[in-house]
Each structure stands twice: as C-alpha cells, then as structure tokens.
Amino acid sequence: MKLLEKSQIRSWDLDTIDHQNISSFDLMLRAASVFSNWFQSLFFDKTRTIHVFCGMGNNGGDGFCIASLLAKAGYEVNVYLFQFNNRFSDDNLSRQKEVESFDKFEKFTPFPLEQKDLIIDALLGSGINGPLKGEYLKLVSWLNALPNKIISIDIPSGMDPDQPTSGSFVHADHVLSFEIPKISFFLNENSDYIKNWDYRSIHLNPGFVEDLKVMNYLIDYDLVKSILRQRKATENKKDFGFAQFCGGSPGMLGSVILASKAAMRCGLGRLAVSTPSIYHSSLFSSCPEAMAQADLPKNVSNLVDFQLVNEHVDAIAIGPGLSSAKESVRYIDEFLKANKKPAVLDADALNIISRNKWQPRIGAYSIISPHKEEFERLFGTCDSHYSRIQKQIEKSKELNIFIILKGAHTTISSPDGSCYYNNTGNVGMGTAGSGDVLTGMLLSFLAQGYTPLETCILAVYLHGSAGDSAAFKYGNIALIASDIIEFIPSVIKNINGK
Ligand SMILES: NC(=O)C1=CN([C@@H]2O[C@H](COP(=O)(O)OP(=O)(O)OC[C@H]3O[C@@H](n4cnc5c(N)ncnc54)[C@H](OP(=O)(O)O)[C@@H]3O)[C@@H](O)[C@H]2O)[C@@H](O)CC1
Ligand SMILES: [K+]
C-alpha cells in the first residue's frame, strides 16, 4: 500500500473534489459517516456520554459532523469548540450549525468528566504545521492525564503525519485514519502511543494514487499475496531454487539449523550448507532436507570455494554464527571478491565488513539485514530511529543494496530510495535465533527467483506473521525462534491458499 505524505493527502482530497464532482462539505460528511459507523461498531454502549473536542480546521469540522451523526444514532453527546484564534475553515463554520449547542473555550480551563465517558479528539488533523503551541499544549496535557478513553479522528491531534513529532500530541486509545494509515503510525518513536489504529476508505479517487510516485509503502496482505507465486503441477525441485547457506563456527550451530529449516519451510528446492564438518551429523538430524558441503580443496576452515559454488547455486546467504575469527575474516574477504550470485549478508558477515570498512565491497543488489547495533557499526550512530531510517535509505542508494533494518517496525530500503514499512511481528521476536530464521527465509525466496525487493517483502512480512501466530499460541515472553518456524507453513498457506 502506498503511504502518502500530508501534502499528497491534501492533493488527493482536492483531486477527489475535482474528479467526483463533490463539494468539500459533502466529502466531510462522507468521512464523518465512515467514522461514525466504525465508532458504533466498537462502542455500542450508549450509556456512556461522548465528549467531542473540536478544533477550528476541517478535523474540527469532522468532529461537529460526527457529533451530529452520533446524537442522531441515540448517543448522549457533548460538544466543545476550542477557538484559540479566529481562523476557522469554511466547512468547520458550516458544520457548527449542525449541532444543537456547544461550549466554546477561548482559553483552556479544565472541567470535570466522568471516568467512564468517551472522548472524541477532533482538535487537529493532518493540517498540523509544527509543534503544538499555547492553549493547545495545556489542553493536550490535560487530556493525556485523564483516565478516559480517547478516540482520535484521522490522527491523534498534534501528531506529525510524516515524521516524529517534536512536541506533544494526544495519546489516543484508538485512531481511525481516513483512506490510508499515516506514515508516522509506523515510526518507533510513536509506537508506545499508537496501539489501536485502523483505517477505512472514504472513497477518494483511486486514479490519483495509482499514478502518484511515493517513496513510502506499507507491506500489507494484498502486496504479499500479489508477489507470492502459485506453483504449476509440473514443476519440480529444480524449479524452486538451489541455495547455499554459509555459517556456523565452533559453538555456533544453532543459527545454521534455524536458517536451514526456515529456508526449506519457505519452499526452497535444494539447500547446501557450508559449516564445519564436526556439525554435519547434528545438522542432518535436525534438518535432514539439507545437504552439507563436502570439504573442498580451497576451503577456509572447512568452508567453501566461492568460485565453485557460483557455478551451481541460485543464491547465497552468509554470516550467521560465523564468528569473527581470523578464518572467518578471510572467508568473507574471499566471498566479497568472488561472489557473483544474489546474496544475503547478515550477523558476523556484517560485523566483519564493518570492522574492516568493506562496506563499498558489498555486491550490488545484495540484501543485508542488520539490527540496530549492527546497522550503527556499519554506518555510524544516529540520534533517533527516524534518522537511522533516513541513513538507511541514503546508504541503500549509495551502495546500491537492499537494507533490512530489523526492529519493532522493520523497514526495507531499496537502491531507488523507496522505503517499505512492516507492521507484522511482536516484541517476543526479540530472541536469539529470530534473525537467523529471517536470513533462512530471505535465502529461500532469493534462490526461488524472486527479485531482491520481492524477497525482502515476502520474508519480512511472513517472518512477522509467523511470529504473531507463535505469540498467539505461546505468548510473547515464552516465544523462541523455533516457534516462528513452526508457523511459517500456516501463514504461507493462508496467503497462497496452497
Ligand atoms: N484528507 C481528506 O481527504 C479529508 C480530510 N478531512 C479532514 O480534514 C483534516 C485536515 O483538515 P485541515 O487541513 O483543515 O487541517 P486541521 O488538521 O483541521 O488543522 C488546521 C487547524 O490547525 C491549526 N494548527 C496547525 N498547526 C498547529 C499547531 N502546531 N499548533 C496549534 N494549532 C495548529 C491551524 O491553525 P492556524 O495555522 O490557522 O493558526 C488550523 O486551525 C483531516 O485530518 C481530516 O480530519 C475530511 O474532512 C474530509 C476528507
Ligand atoms: K484528531
């Protein structure tokens, strides 16, 4: 799904008014009806009073319109207008006439509310320009200290739709965004405050967004479904890719097993594993589907000759459990020199690259999947998660690589400067081996012939979804990496139908 910046949302709004021959006044009614239906499906108990807090722009106009619809639906509704200057939007002024009465505040003073009552936040929407000022600040601090449930229209008031908010904003319990979610819903800076959000279409002109160039996307079910291929009955294992996984070192076998199993569960045809031979029997007992790489003449510490590998495999993943021993450094050096195949680099491969400043040697269109610490070792420290994402995009362009920055909302950056936000996954996945499972999934899709971008999208989304299913069964405290693998089959089957 395309994620639009606030200026683009505004243009979409105007384009719809133009193309659908609808007035902005009527478009507001459409949005208010959508909100009101959604609200009634969630909060059907009509014994609680609803307090609608309206600002002076169109978000406030939505508030008046929604208050009138909810009153007609039988709710007890109180409306408040916060008029901190004289610049009303036209539609706001018109919609004020639809409610029987409202209290007006030119300066904010606190007033009592019953704890069980609900608050609808219609103070400010996507028209925000800069941090909250003056009376709004006092009002929002008061709202945030109340025990009442707050439901925001379009966006929590004060929140910047495109980037982290430098001031304060309403800490909403629920948000209904119009048409599409806002970019800022996926920023780590906001994740403690934006838990229950949803979006509903208000039927803005679809043609506008089809042609619109955007730099931000949300990875959603429809996108993943459109990428995941159906198999033909006549295909066989040779059609599903041959992958090479290189990793493991003394004491570090687990990552090899987790990655291998995850790779096979994502539909890989054949998998060869390069790992020290002392581990081959353990690997076979845990993942009999994998082949272990025999000792080859030029092996470094029982690893593999990349020139030779390149002739046979469709993709390589390298790094998990490799250690940063001298032999592993030589191994990565060899790999960077010789590899010609689509590749995934993770864990110790990234640590070795950052220590030796080999970043410019990473092959074009490779995928790297660092977590925050690995990322900062590679590219330097950042003072916020948002600035880390900006650097991620910049480095993808500069190095011509795909970067998966793992975290609460994993982001994928592509060499063309676009950024994909993921919304699956949970805190329970921050556990040993979870990243190895992702590496195995990436390797699998890459070897099956998906493009690097498709590979990143599929693996990141499905990894998070499998983690969500695992957390549903085991809880996010008990969840371990093997549980994620347990649920890969069902999440793929749910999407692909096969
Ligand atoms: N997209 C769509 O298709 C549709 C959108 N719709 C709705 O329109 C909403 C957008 O409406 P909008 O553009 O009128 O702006 P809005 O958010 O009400 O804010 C403007 C007010 O905020 C004030 N203000 C600004 N910054 C401030 C600050 N830092 N601190 C304090 N005040 C600040 C500003 O004051 P001023 O700058 O004039 O001093 C002005 O009074 C959108 O969110 C959605 O709800 C639907 O009705 C129909 C379909
Ligand atoms: K709002």
Automatic annotation (TrEMBL):
KW tRNA-binding (keyword) present: no
Cofactor-binding details, from the entry: Binds 1 potassium ion per subunit.
EC number assigned by the record: 4.2.1.136, 5.1.99.6
Catalytic activities: (6R)-NADHX = (6S)-NADHX; (6S)-NADPHX + ADP = AMP + phosphate + NADPH + H(+); (6R)-NADPHX = (6S)-NADPHX; (6S)-NADHX + ADP = AMP + phosphate + NADH + H(+)
Residue positions binding (6S)-NADPHX: 58-62, 125-131, 136, 154, 321, 371, 436
Cofactor(s) listed in the protein's UniProt record: Mg(2+); K(+)
Binding residue positions for AMP: 406-410, 435
Domain YjeF C-terminal, first and last residues per copy: 220-495
Function: Catalyzes the epimerization of the S- and R-forms of NAD(P)HX, a damaged form of NAD(P)H that is a result of enzymatic or heat-dependent hydration. This is a prerequisite for the S-specific NAD(P)H-hydrate dehydratase to allow the repair of both epimers of NAD(P)HX.
Subunit (UniProt): Homotetramer.
Entry protein name: Bifunctional NAD(P)H-hydrate repair enzyme
Species this protein is from: Portibacter lacus
Gene: nnrD
